[in-house]
Design goal:
Blueprint: H1 3-27, E1 37-43, E2 46-50, E3 55-57, E4 60-61, E5 66-69, E6 72-79, E7 86-88, E8 95-98, E9 102-106, E10 112-115, E11 121-122, E12 128-129, E13 148-151, E14 156-160, E15 168-172, E16 175-177, E17 185-188, E18 191-193, E19 202-204, E20 213-216, E21 218-220, H2 226-258
Antiparallel strand pairs: 1-6, 2-5, 3-4, 7-21, 8-20, 9-10, 9-16, 11-12, 13-14, 14-15, 16-19, 17-18
Helix pairs in contact: 1-2
Length: 262
Amino acid sequence: MMRALWTAASGMTAQQTKIDVISNNLANVNTTGFKKSRVDFQDLLYQTVKYAGTPSTTGAQIPTGIQVGHGVRTVATQKVFSQGMYQQTDNPLDVVIEGDGFFQVLLPDGTICYTRDGAFKIDAYGRLTTSDGFPIEPEIQIPEEAVEVSISSDGTVAVMYPGVSDPEERDTIMIARFVNPAGLQSVGRNLYRATAASGAPIVGQPGMDGFGTLAQNFLEMSNVQVVEEMVNMIVAQRAYESNSKAIQASDEMLQAANNLRR
């Protein structure tokens, strides 16, 4: 059987994975805080027919050798944490991180996840939560009688009460950052989980020690660029077609060999 059949098949599988990732990027083009993914490929093993540097005659060596590759494989799907565009919402509970950092979210099982989605809500207990009702960590409590909520660039949360001219500072929103954010595990719901590859979270106050600052009344949109993804889709489609042509050519060559007669 011709090696080209399996080599080209690996190329088609790799391009199919790329299309899957592009489709997910496009599906989340309007998802708040979404970060696009990219696919990294790696060539497979090589069959060495003749080694470079092998002596050919006295005082002479083969300069290049002969190696035949066996195709490609998907080695990684990497999250790209470039900043998305900001959208002004005029909602006091919408918060964006300008720079490095993630909001911390407490899940029902007690674990901490991380998100760039700052579309917060207030639950029945007055806690600041995500759209799924998960409270942010540390807990931010908004009193029921408060008439206005203010969130400063350093994460300080202040509230205004009826008949009072000066706001009262309540809590501070703390954020986390990672040495390798691309190593975070996506778990859906705009959440990420820390892994051994991402490193332990470094928690701090916004605007301090390299952390980003907060901006109220804004949301960070997806960093997916539709034009870029459409171009990547065309490139992947053409590469898929080219690999299918290689399989077709290999099949025709095998057919010609099978039709040989003595």
